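Subject: for your reference before the review

Hello V.,

The reviewers asked for a structural picture of the protein, and I figured it would be easier to keep everything in one thread rather than splitting it across files. Below is the amino acid sequence we used in the manuscript, unchanged from the supplementary table.
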Amino acid sequence: MKNISKKTKILAFLIVIIIVIGIGITATIGLNFDLRYEQAKKIQLYLERNFEINDIKEITNQVLPSQNVIIQKVEVYEDTVSILAKEITEEQKVEIINKINEKYATTLSTETEISNVPHTRGRDIVKPYIIPFLIATVIILAYMAIRYYKLGIGKIIAKTIVLLVIAQATLLSVMAIARIPIGRITAPLVITVYLLSLLGITTYFEKKLKEKKKEEE
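And here is what came back from the structure prediction:
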């Protein structure tokens, strides 16, 4: 038991350190957002014909070699290309358009405007998930209160909530420290950690419930 207690203390200490460092990084330099959610520049070009994403990617690699670029087909007929990058200067825009004209024999105007894409706040990203998570958590807490009532309803609910909060705080702190972008992979990671946390706490409660029943017998 002493070994387990010592391991638990070490783990708790490490988690606290990770969360504190994560909070510090988030407060100072902020989280690292995927380009889709970061402040960026965009140009949208109507080619009036089918085109290959790889062709446009090859052009942007030449003109914007050190940048992450998102290229998408838009509109119903997929004859318009959207090019999103952290920074696109007027000179780079003209060079991209000229290369596309050369590649596809189009007559795109170099007067196309560069659009400013605003930064998406973290709260706006998580907003659609808040209500479903709250509903799921309330249902789970109700089930646990019924299933493990012999262990004390108040303790069961409190421990479950604390574990879920700590698990999510640890995940976000690790993402902040490792500079993992907040984007498409964030929701799957949050859900995975949420489910693993529930699995861990229910396994713990099941063990305690069996011990309780043995004592009663």
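For the response letter, the relevant points are probably these. Residues 2-33+121-216 form one domain. The first helix runs from residue 2 to 28.

Happy to draft the paragraph if you're swamped.

O.
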